[in-house]
Write a structure and sequence with these properties.
- The protein has 134 residues and is an alpha+beta fold.
- It folds into 2 domains: 89 residues, 3-Layer(aba) Sandwich (Rossmann fold); 41 residues, no CATH class.
- Helices cover 40% and strands 27% of the residues.
- A 4-stranded mixed β-sheet has the order 1-2-4-3.
Length: 134
C-alpha cells in the first residue's frame, strides 16, 4: 500500500484501478461535488463500489428539532467560546448546503453509478450511500 496525495476532483491515478473508493465525512468539502464523485467512479473498476459516509439533516422530530438547535445555535456558540467561530459555523453550513440522501443518490447516478442505496443511522444524522460502477 502507498499513500497518494491529490485533489479529490482530479485523482492522480489511472482509471478502473480500484475495487472501491470511499470518503467519510469529506464529500461535503469537495469543491465540486459532482466532479468529486465522478472521479471516485472513474478510478473504480466495473462492478466496484463507491461508498460515501456523510452527515445529513434528520427529517423527523424530535431529532430534527434538536439537530437544528444544536447546529444553528450551540455549535456556533461553542466556536465563539473556543475562539474559532469560523470553523464552528462552517460545519453546520456545510451540512445544510450538502444534498440530502435522495439528492446525493442522484449525483451518484449522474456519475454513472447504479444500484444506489443508502441507510440512515444515528437517528437520521448519518447517511451511508453505496453505488456500483456499471
Amino acid at each position: 500500500m502507498r499513500l497518494v496525495r491529490g485533489d479529490a476532483t482530479s485523482l492522480p491515478v489511472p482509471s478502473a484501478r480500484f475495487d472501491a473508493a470511499t470518503v467519510g465525512f469529506g464529500a461535503r468539502n469537495f469543491s465540486d461535488l459532482p466532479l468529486g464523485i465522478a472521479e471516485m467512479a472513474r478510478v473504480v473498476r466495473p462492478g466496484g463500489k463507491v461508498v460515501i459516509l456523510e452527515i445529513t439533516t434528520p427529517q423527523k422530530p424530535p431529532l430534527s428539532t434538536f439537530f437544528k438547535v444544536w447546529f444553528d445555535h450551540v455549535v456556533p456558540g461553542l466556536g465563539r467560546l473556543a475562539g474559532d467561530s469560523d470553523a464552528y459555523t462552517y460545519l453546520p453550513n456545510s451540512v445544510k448546503r450538502f444534498p440530502g440522501p435522495q439528492g446525493l443518490a442522484e449525483v451518484m447516478a449522474a456519475a454513472g453509478l447504479r444500484d444506489i442505496r443508502w441507510i440512515l443511522t444515528a437517528g437520521g444524522i448519518i447517511a451511508i450511500h453505496v453505488g456500483t460502477k456499471a
